[in-house]
Automatic annotation (TrEMBL):
GO terms for molecular function: ATP binding; DNA binding; helicase activity; type I site-specific deoxyribonuclease activity. The keyword ATP-binding applies. It comes from Methanogenium marinum. CDD domains: DEXHc_RE_I_III_res (cd18032), SF2_C_EcoAI-like (cd18799). GO terms for biological process: DNA restriction-modification system. This is DEAD/DEAH box helicase family protein.
Length: 916
């Protein structure tokens, strides 16, 4: 059989699977089915390999070529069939709109009705019903995407307007893949719902797939669709269109949006009826395998390639790499990626078509997100480990069952910081970090407050999280509701626990491993504590993103009653995570499903391919981080080589540059050929794998890998080395103060409030609340983004000895104190209300020295008027009409009765003495 004949057999199978009836020309029967593919049909330009009929009318051709043929040049041949004269062939348009070129392994498709017909690679053929449906449409999808009506911008932020506009421009240019980068908390999902609504309503998109990382994020996304009020119709999205959060194995045939994890979608494509729902709970990000072999996908007639017109991948860097690429590319759909932290792989997958770039700095400057300060805690054990002396009884705990036993140490036991909470648990190290956090909580971190802010702690493992929870409850003297663990092993539904943490007063502190590390919105969160290091820069930024969300003051007070407006969050770094080096993409196993034992055996019998060697090196590097010096010494003694050298040699043995260099030395030539480089590489790999020939060495590695006990160190005492804001936080505070002072200097002659404070004599400083409000509004707008809280906190870090007043609630009038302190008018920065209180006390004392005293009733009036000035700058007759306390006291009439004709004079004097 010829190569082209073999290709046709494959193509026949693809057509049959897609619902086509295949016939030879002399067996023509157009009534045999909705779609008939006729082989070797004669046209004026020659014989079409397949002429496609739908509903008895010709609609397209397939040009078949042998495997390996590059198809771009074949398009010219197909075009002759599509646009040539059609004699005695029933058709609707006078030409054939649909053209395919296929080798059976690779298939190209185009629609000549598109504004700019362009061939695109497709997984298989469209079903006849799809062609029939598309022939009835006046314009193609790509044509409709060039005719969007103007965007209704009501309810959209500027960054969201920009994202939707740029995406639709990308659609108009027929880019198959588009990437939107928007900072965490800037409203990516709302943006997505906005453009999905327009795709469905204005472009008549058949169905949109919305891929999420895990079920809890799917629930969150579904709620976004439920809450979305369409800007032109006024009804909710879900009142107009069916939205399915996929929890079974069937896609809703009338649904317009389908929300799913990629794991579940893959199981549906495979026809897996026994899919485990718990698989939807595990994030594919931190434990993902971007270099793993892609999942194999075969055509599923129940889920044809035209099932979705668009696929949105939320936080797409977790799912688009090699592992799931075939799942995404199975569908003939436009791909839209949403991410806050694009990696090189993400940009590459989306053809570097970054239609929106909105980073965290810009989001903070626009007031969309809040920034953060880093508070560093360094302890002796965290930094350098510890030693338990010999002859001590130590407790050991089995990691999984947590069963305990006692063992007498016959020699001293030393462990490093890298073994903490993996091989060794130092209770005092955990306790010291938590106690230090507690001691600084209401002084340095959140001064003047009494409620523990909503706090999220990142732990190394479920067992580590368990230990942290126990110690937090003890240190804070609180019950189970105060601090809870949110991990995959908690027992309750994760989304229920996350919702409780977000919306209820308790828990105040949640401890997680990675359940809440990405994608989950917890807007009232004000503090992140890192008790684990993170090596992936992308993942670290995602974890930081949990704290960046802004929150309405009313919603914040529902869970934290004494919190001021959230204008920053605190990162408590207990492990140096903000200082450690990070990789754009962590190297991960290429064979994640292969057990360590089989991997060692595979190398021992001579399987030395790149994937195997790289995976072994990665597993050993991971093991090296978990063991101590004693175990490393045992490995080195057994192998005759330091453990770190064994790992390094494995990595370098598969490095192409190393192979070329070794070939240069081995064959004494500057230009080794391919065979010499191959032989050199085999030599390097063989040398690197020599230690694994030893059964004793392999057994030792297996024993160390399967060690399941942790030493519970209850003996070592930890001590704080450092506890304070990081250099970066201080530098940001210095910059904030400098920018604030520069703002005042530049605007002292143009903003009324600054003019009054800066240049007018005290008797002429008649400042109003409205003028202070105007100043506040200008300060809050980009590029400044100043709030009283933000500037106050900056001064607390820069000039702590000159800042007084611990109240967490900054009033609008505190701007006066900030301006006066910045101008050097006051030696100390204190809340404006406290300044007014001091002035009032002096004024009363001076009046008494002059022989003027006030009655009890008059003092009550004066105190209320003083408090009003502290909150509103001044007092006048109109204030008695809306100030609740003044009204409760009897209003202006009662005040006149108390002071007689002297009331107006008293108010004027108070404004002059107590005011600016």
């Amino acid at each position: 059989m010829t190569p082209e004949g073999k290709a046709r057999i494959t193509i026949d199978g693809m057509l049959l699977a897609a619902g086509w009836v295949i016939q030879d020309r002399d067996e023509l029967n157009l009534g045999a089915g909705a779609g008939v593919a006729v082989r070797e049909y004669p046209l004026t330009e020659g014989y079409a390999d397949y002429l496609l009929f739908v509903d008895r009318k010709a609609v397209g051709v397939i040009e078949a070529k042998k495997e390996g043929t590059t198809l771009s040049g074949v398009c010219e041949q197909s075009d002759g069939y599509l646009t040539g004269k059609l004699t005695n062939i029933p058709n609707e348009l006078g030409y054939l709109p649909f053209g395919y070129e296929s080798t059976g392994k690779e298939t190209y498709f185009r629609d000549l009705r598109d504004p700019e017909p362009r061939s695109r690679r497709v997984f298989s053929f469209l079903r006849p019903e799809t062609f029939s449906e598309r022939m009835k449409q006046e314009k193609t999808l790509r044509a409709r995407m060039q005719e969007y009506p103007p965007l209704v911008t009501t309810g959209l932020r500027e960054c969201q307007i920009e994202a939707v506009t740029n995406l639709e421009h990308s659609f108009a240019e027929d880019h198959p893949r588009s990437l939107i980068q928007m900072a965490t908390g800037s409203g990516k999902t709302f943006t997505a719902v906005s453009f999905i609504y327009r795709l469905i309503k204005h472009c008549n998109a058949k169905r949109v797939l919305f891929l999420v990382d895990r079920t809890s994020l799917g629930v969150q996304t579904y709620k976004e669709f439920q809450m979305y009020v369409t800007p032109d119709d006024g009804r909710k999205f879900t009142e107009l269109y069916n939205v399915q959060h996929l929890s079974g194995q069937k896609i809703d045939p009338v649904g317009k949006v389908c929300i799913s994890t990629i794991q579940r979608l893959y199981s549906i494509l495979k026809g897996d009826e026994d899919y485990d729902p718990e698989s939807d709970e595990f994030s594919s990000f931190e434990d993902g395998v971007p270099n793993a072999k892609p999942k194999d996908v075969v055509y599923n007639p129940d889920i044809p390639i035209e099932t979705f017109d668009f696929i949105v991948t939320d936080e797409c860097h977790r799912s688009i790499y090699n592992l799931w690429s075939q799942v995404l590319e199975y569908f003939d759909a436009h791909l839209i990626g949403l991410t806050a932290t694009p990696s090189k792989q993400t940009l590459g997958f989306f053809n570097k078509n970054l239609v929106m770039e909105y980073g965290s700095d810009r989001a903070v400057a626009d007031g969309v997100n809040v920034g953060f300060d880093v508070f560093r805690i360094v302890t002796e054990i965290t930094k350098g480990g510890s030693t338990v002396d010999a002859d001590f009884w130590v407790e050991k705990r089995e990691k999984l069952s947590r069963d305990r036993r006692w063992e007498l140490l016959d020699e001293e036991f030393t462990y490093t910081q890298r073994q903490l909470d993996r091989n060794v648990v130092s209770y005092d190290q955990i306790r010291t970090v938590i106690r230090t956090f507690k001691e600084h909580l209401f002084t340095s971190l959140f001064p003047g407050r009494s409620e523990v802010p909503k706090t999220l702690i990142f732990a190394k493992s479920d067992s580590h999280a368990e230990d942290i929870v126990e110690i937090i409850r003890e240190e804070f003297g609180r019950g189970n509701d105060f601090c809870k663990k949110i991990t995959y092993r908690t027992g309750r539904k994760p989304e229920d626990m996350i919702r409780e943490f977000r919306s209820s007063y308790n828990p105040r502190i949640a401890v997680t491993v990675d359940m809440v590390s990405t994608g989950v919105d917890i807007k009232p969160l004000e503090c992140l504590i890192f008790m684990r290091d993170v090596k992936s820069q992308v993942y670290f930024e995602q974890m930081l993103g949990r704290g960046t969300r802004t929150v309405d003051i009313t919603d914040l007070h529902q869970v934290t009653t004494d919190a001021p407006a959230k204008d920053r969050f605190i990162v408590v770094d207990a492990v140096g995570v903000c200082e450690s080096s990070k990789n754009p993409q962590v190297v991960i196993d290429k064979k994640p499903s292969v057990s360590f034992k089989k991997l060692l055996e595979s190398v021992a019998v001579g399987n030395h391919d790149n994937a195997t060697i790289t995976t072994l090196a990665t597993r050993l590097a991971r093991l090296d981080r978990r063991i101590g010096d004693r175990e490393r010494e045992e490995i080195s003694d057994t192998a005759g080589t330091p453990f770190v050298e064994i790992i390094k040699t494995l990595y370098t043995s598969v490095d192409p540059d190393e192979a070329r260099e070794h070939a240069t030395e081995l064959f004494a030539t500057e230009t080794p050929d391919a065979s010499q480089i191959k032989e050199a590489k085999e030599s390097l790999v063989s040398t690197a794998c020599e230690p694994f020939d030893s059964p004793k060495f392999r057994t030792l590695l297996l024993d160390l890998k399967t060690q399941s006990e942790q030493v519970l160190d209850k003996v070592s005492e930890d001590r704080v080395i450092e506890a304070g804001f990081s250099t970066d936080a201080k530098e940001r505070a210095v910059l904030t103060v400098a920018n604030f002072r520069q703002f005042i200097e530049e605007n002292k002659d143009s903003i009324t409030a600054l003019q009054i404070i800066y240049s007018r004599p005290k008797r002429e400083r008649h400042l109003t609340y409205e003028q202070i409000r105007e100043l506040s509004d200008i300060l809050a707008k980009p590029p400044y983004g100043f709030t009283p809280d933000k500037v106050w906190q900056a001064y607390e870090q820069v000039e702590r000895n000159h800042v007084r007043g611990a109240s967490p609630h900054r009033m609008l009038t505190d701007i006066i104190s900030l301006v006066r302190f910045s101008l050097g008018c006051d030696d100390y920065l204190e809340p404006y209300r406290e300044t007014v209180d001091h002035r009032f006390e002096r004024w009363i004392a001076e009046r008494e020295e002059d022989g003027i005293t006030f009655s009890r009733e008059q003092m009550e009036w004066l105190t209320i008027m003083k408090d009003h000035i502290g909150a509103s700058v001044s007092i006048g007759p109109d204030d008695f009409e809306y100030n609740q306390r003044l009204m409760q006291k009897g209003g202006l009439f009662s005040a006149h009765r108390a002071f007689g004709d002297g009331l107006n004079g008293i108010m004027a004097e108070l404004n002059e003495v107590l005011g600016v």
